[in-house]
Amino acid sequence: MTLNSHTIPHAYTPDIAGGFETLLHDDDKAREYLLGHLWPTGAPFCPRCGHRKVYTLSGDRLRCASCKYTFQPFSCRWINNGALSPSEWLRLVTLFVEEKSVHQMKQELSLSYNTVYKALTAIRFAILAHAIDARQLISPATGLDSYLKGNRLTGGPREMRMDTIPVYGILRKDKMVFIDLVLGLQAETLFHFHMNFHLKLIRTGNLVYSDRYKEYDALMFCGNDSLPYNVIRRYDEQPYIDEVQDDFWKYAQSRVKRFRGISCQRFPLYMKELEFRFNNRDKALPEILAAYLCALVPSME
Ligand SMILES: [Zn+2]
């Protein structure tokens, strides 16, 4: 065991010589780029306690001098969920940004469907974890907490019913959109508002959205087969959000229609992805996503 005297080549710089493209088929370069995101100053630190004195062990392993935790560079990070090489990760990120289908990604990367699907889940969790309301979202209120076991995405969905399926609200502010978890409302409440207070509801598959409600342009939830969708009445007039057709709804509508196969448990991942894409529509998404994937999985305890 030797004291690690700076094995990491250099600090992360946002300028990539030759551009992001050059990383996509070069594992060494891709890895170096990702390491720069892990340790911006170039010096590794313990992902568990943050201590900066770290020993290098054989292979790829490191050990914290303080808490004795043995780790690999990508331990405890979102990117540690998935069996992809560094350049495969960056290629997947690029295909994700281009909104390719899982099938197309699987073919372009020569990876299995499950490998791609799991890695995409890690990307979506990484996006959601960077939202301002992440702590509220990775919680029993949405059910997303059951996917995380410690810092690994090895869990699965928890069963949801009408009285536990959460409701999300679409809020516009200047050029931004916020998809909020609306505390205290569940699918059941919206059915109640619909039947007793004439809140307009529109159903498309398992997705239900409402007319304007308080500060929200619409409320929405993704249900499952246990819901009484047949109580939803048809209207001649459109709800507010369809009537107004603002730039977010124009952007979201065609994408939301493709949500057909999404479960109520995974729904917030896709809504926060839409929020992220819309709010960062003028930015270089692959680089933002690489940074997000390299971030530590927050401790939710
Ligand atoms: Zn430590």
Automatic annotation (TrEMBL):
Domain ISXO2-like transposase: start-end pairs:
143-279
What superkingdom heads the lineage? Bacteria
Quote the Pfam families the UniProt record gives. Answer: DDE_Tnp_IS1595, Zn_ribbon_IS1595
Transposase zinc-ribbon domain residues are 26-70
Sorted alphabetically, which InterPro entries does this protein's record hold? Tnp_ISXO2-like, Transposase_Zn_ribbon
Name of this chain's protein: DDE transposase
Organism encoding this protein: Pseudodesulfovibrio sediminis
Q: What is the lineage of its organism?
A: Bacteria, Pseudomonadati, Thermodesulfobacteriota, Desulfovibrionia, Desulfovibrionales
